[in-house]
Amino acid sequence: MPSFACRSLPITLLALLCCLGSGEKAFEVYIWSEKHVVEAWESWKVNCSTSCDNPKVGGLETTMSKMMLEEHPQGKWKQFLVSNASHDMKLICHFTCAEQQRSEDLNITVFQPPAQVTLRLQPPRVIVGETFTIECTTLAVKPLESLTLTLLRGRETLQNQTFEGTELEATVRFNSTALTKDDLNFSCQAELDLRPHGGYIIRSISESQILEVFEPIQDNQMVIIIVVVSLLLFLFVTSVLLCFILGQHWHRRRTGTYGVLAAWRRLPRAFRQRAM
Ligand SMILES: *[C@@H]1O[C@H](CO)[C@@H](O)[C@H](O)[C@H]1NC(C)=O
Ligand SMILES: *[C@@H]1O[C@H](CO)[C@@H](O)[C@H](O)[C@H]1NC(C)=O
Ligand SMILES: *[C@@H]1O[C@H](CO)[C@@H](O)[C@H](O)[C@H]1NC(C)=O
Ligand SMILES: *[C@@H]1O[C@H](CO)[C@@H](O)[C@H](O)[C@H]1NC(C)=O
Ligand SMILES: *[C@@H]1O[C@H](CO)[C@@H](O)[C@H](O)[C@H]1NC(C)=O
Ligand SMILES: *[C@@H]1O[C@H](CO)[C@@H](O)[C@H](O)[C@H]1NC(C)=O
């Protein structure tokens, strides 16, 4: 046994030296991706290349759909079109050169922009002094930890919230009180900050919503106005009716007089003169 160990040790050392030696002269593998942050279902180009002059095999490993676009005649590089990414993933380029395989990987972040930002006011109209709730929701945003929802009144920030986890929906709520009778203009901004992943900021803003604010006395005034208008209407209708009835009455009396007058007129002139 010891003799075998003594003989195998130099072999192991030799093997180690050999491998280190070839390691120094080892070829390189490169991965180039048109994008590091991609929108879900987008497609983009990836180029796998090597410093090896005559690689045996090489390619791209991914769970996504891929299609080779172009290839170097000696196989020193291969360009692919990668598509259909639905979640974060790793791309791996590999080449085999002189019986040795090497690979290089790259992380790809998949995002889904905040497409639909909805703002809701509950209730949509209040009386001065009443509380109301502003609620903003956005659907299917990725990555959620890059999302910030900001509630705005005009240009003023009321509240902002950054999210975590894997839910598909993000909601922010804010309770407030209407202090003056001025209508309030609210909106909600969704911001997806992809800078930590090598991307940019994507912003989406909801349609603005107006909170109608009423003065509490306005309701009493409304009641008074309604009562007064009803009274005036009643008086008007009554007077019209009275006028009509009285008019009819007067008309009948007048017609009666005319009857006598007409009969008088119908009498021959001689009679009338005699009667006079
Ligand atoms: C792929 O990358 C290699 C090395 O950088 C480059 O020489 C080659 O032109 C690239 N291929 C394409 C199609 O861009
Ligand atoms: C993309 O992925 C979906 C499911 O994730 C699949 O149904 C569809 O066939 C894929 N499309 C392509 C072009 O691979
Ligand atoms: C790629 O992502 C994995 C986790 O999925 C992480 O451990 C690794 O450090 C990342 N690599 C780079 C180059 O960011
Ligand atoms: C509410 O504010 C938004 C932007 O802040 C503006 O575009 C919109 O015209 C405003 N609406 C009203 C009714 O003032
Ligand atoms: C969120 O609000 C804080 C102050 O409350 C502010 O410092 C921060 O910049 C805001 N973030 C965003 C993304 O607007
Ligand atoms: C807002 O008010 C409602 C009741 O009107 C309450 O259930 C909710 O917890 C409040 N939210 C906040 C953030 O204060």
TrEMBL record:
PROSITE patterns: IG_LIKE. Residues 1-26 form the signal peptide. It is found in: Membrane. GO terms for cellular component: cleavage furrow; microvillus; uropod. It is a single-pass type I membrane protein. Keywords: Cell adhesion, Disulfide bond, Glycoprotein, Immunoglobulin domain, Membrane, Repeat, Signal, Transmembrane, Transmembrane helix. The keyword Nucleotide-binding does not apply. Residues 113-206 form the Ig-like domain. GO terms for molecular function: integrin binding. Pfam families: ICAM_N. GO terms for biological process: cell-cell adhesion. The chain crosses the membrane at residues 222-246. PANTHER family: INTERCELLULAR ADHESION MOLECULE, INTERCELLULAR ADHESION MOLECULE 2. Belongs to the immunoglobulin superfamily. ICAM family. This is Intercellular adhesion molecule 2. The lineage of its organism: Eukaryota, Metazoa, Chordata, Craniata, Vertebrata. The gene is Icam2.
